[in-house]
Amino acid sequence: MKAAIMGYGMIGKRLERVARLIWPWRFPCLFKLLTGLNCPGCGGTRALIALLRGKLFLSFLYHPFVPYCALVALLLLGSHAVSRMTGNKKYRLRFDERYTYVGIAIVAVNFLVKNLLLIGFRIDVLEMLPPV
Ligand SMILES: [Zn+2]
Q1: Ligand 1 centre and the CA of 32: distance in Å?
Q2: 33: CA distance to ligand 1 center in Å?
Q3: Cα 39 to ligand 1 centroid, rounded to whole Å
Q4: Cα 51 versus chain centre, distance
Q5: pTM for the full model?
Q6: Among 74, 92, 75, which Cα is nearest to 83's?
Q7: DSSP states of 19-88 as a string?
Q8: Cα 58 to averaged position of ligand 1 atoms, centre (Å)
Q9: 115-130 pLDDT per residue, tens
């Protein structure tokens, strides 16, 4: 399992290098600059980088929507692969709008929790996490 995660991290680093070649700029969040609060997408880029490096838990802490999307994509792609290999369509998962509702709920809860911690306790979770 650890070897698989390390292999995934190696592939992730290569994907990250390609992504930085295509899009080398990292912009600060305009919403955060203007309001001091985290926007609903704050931490998403760092979560993606952490995920590509195989740091799943760190990715979850930065923004849980990113590993959630990766999990849903893996489940859908995996079920289609199993369905094709076995020739049995009963293994194929179909995209369901509930996946979208769960994703919206994850973004909303993440937005509320991180900003309530920021407003109520002056705890900026994103600044406390190790850099990626
Ligand atoms: Zn933001």
Answers
A1: 6
A2: 9
A3: 4
A4: 7
A5: 0.80
A6: 92
A7: HHHH----PPPHHHHHHSSPPTTTTHHHHHHHHHTT-HHHHHHH-THHHHHHHHHHHHHHHHHHHHHHT-
A8: 17
A9: 999 999 999 999 999 9
Q: What pLDDT digit, counting tens, does each position of 96-114 carry? A: 999 999 999 999 999 999 9
> What whole-number percentage of the chain has pLDDT above 70?
93
Count of other CB atoms within 10 angstroms of residue 120: 8
**Could you tell me the distance, in angstroms and rounded to a whole number, from the CA of residue 60 to the centre of ligand 1?**
16
Measure 112 CA to ligand 1 centroid, in angstroms. 13
pLDDT in tens, 24-63: 777 789 999 999 999 999 999 999 999 999 999 999 999 9
**84 phi-psi bin (left φ>0, alpha ψ -120 to 50, beta other):** alpha
* Cα-to-centroid distance, 36 and ligand 1 (Å): 10
